[in-house]
Specification:
Rossmann fold; alpha/beta; 227 residues
Amino acid sequence: MHSAAFKAAGLEAWRYELWDVAAAELPGLIGRLRGAGYAGANVTIPHKLAVIGLLDGLDAVGTRVGAVNLVRKEGDRLIGSNVDVEGVAAALAEVGFEGGRAVVLGNGGAARAAAVALEGSEVTLVARSLGNWEDRGRLARSVDLLLNATPLGRQGEVPIQADDLPRAAVVDLVYAKGGTPLVRSARSAGLAAADGWSVLLAQGAASFTAWTRLPAPLEAMRASLPG
């Protein structure tokens, strides 16, 4: 997606690379970003919290979420932010959710970002770490929106059963070609649904602009996604 964006924007020298690092290697990687030739990075699980202490600061969104998935350079400083919020907001707009009662499955960085994007709604976080995971079906049935911010769905699992779908809309942050089982189930039931491709595109566009200070070439980015 970013390679397509750089090409469309005429940034031929720019590259987006995957760095798969263990926790012990994270400080060295962040130090590498401080060198010449780097504009920033995206950060994914399991490093969204650990990276905070290695940065020079957080912007307002990163501070509110308390988790970072975007690093950008400001002079010689590395600033953390969270573009999951913009991604979730785009998905909420896609399903037409403008407020109400919502259940968010998960309690990690993505769930925290979702809670910020859902500010103004009545939000219940449901996770094993919160001790209410077994109640997720009952809780989901009673709300307007269900948002899955767990990894469940990547291997074909479903975080809830079809009988436990919410009243109006589903957003699944997991992305899979053809849609996740949760999204397919929601659409079959006549609910509005958006999957992680919508979120990925929106957060990718926000990342591109943060690094380059240019408008994101959305059509080129969208065309590169297989979803």
